[in-house]
Amino acid sequence: MRFQGKNVVITGGNSGIGLATAKAFVREGARVAIIGRSAETLAAARAELGKDAIAISAELSRVAEIDRAFAEVRAAFGTVDVLFANAGGGGMIPFEQVDEALWDQIIDLNVKGTYFTVQRCLPLMGKGGAIILCSSVSAARSMPGASVYAASKAAINSLGRSLGGELVGRGIRVNVVMPGGVQTPIMQRTPGVPAELANMIFEKMAQGTPMGRVGQPDEIASAVLFLASPEASYITATELHVDGGVIGAT
């Protein structure tokens, strides 16, 4: 019960890594607010999480929607102890075929959305707070077809380092978790990836991972809870690879 009495906000908390992390925080005593786009999956996730969770529908690529979401968080919780900025998306599109619309879609959600999520959450967070940003191993290795997504995640790494230094004087730690391939529904929703190819892509990810498999959402959740916990009290402005050895073996 490391998070008994703590208030946690998780963006993209209605599925995949975000939902697994929300469940883990609830198991350890936290009250959790999940924020996402899909009202249907938010309702289902809220039902799974139980009475210690609230669900907020918002389009996190729009600052006005982020403002509205955190007004709801303030009304429900008053303060925030942990923020997991997890919401994001991508596409597998050859470089020559990337257009302005795809660029704006990915950058607005992954970079602008994360940036202003942290900014709008900050007034609710005091000394001892923890912020975890969700990046990807694609920020540090070649992934053909993922140029915009990879660039957006590299920006998240840079943001984590910058904010780690800027907020340390307030007693707030900022770290980045970098998952490798993880078995979540995201691939089926990725532009440029037909549904029938999703399993093949996961198989290829597993073959390229020293541990010989992709990760599970609960394994990423465990890393996030560690970074948010007192056990990580001397860790800030760093990146934690949870990737089965991909980066270390490159």
In helices, the fraction of residues equals: 40-55%
Ends apart, CA distance between termini: 37 Å
Total of domains = 1
Give the topology string: H per helix, E per strand.
EHEHEHEHEHEHHEH
- The CATH architecture term is 3-Layer(aba) Sandwich
| Assigned CATH superfamily | NAD(P)-binding Rossmann-like Domain
How many beta-strand runs?
7
What's the CATH topology name?
A: Rossmann fold
Q: How would you describe the overall organization of this protein?
A:
The chain is α/β, with parallel strands linked by helices and 250 residues long. It has a single domain, classed as NAD(P)-binding Rossmann-like Domain (Rossmann fold, 3-Layer(aba) Sandwich), CATH 3.40.50. 44% of the residues lie in helices and 14% in strands. The protein is built from 8 helices and 7 strands; from the N terminus they run βαβαβαβαβαβααβα. Strands 3-2-1-4-5-6-7 form a 7-stranded parallel β-sheet, with helices on both faces. β4, α4 (100-121) and β5 form a beta-alpha-beta unit. α1 (16-27) crosses α7 and α4 runs parallel beside α5 (147-167). The longest helix is centred in the middle third of the chain and has 22 residues, at 100-121.
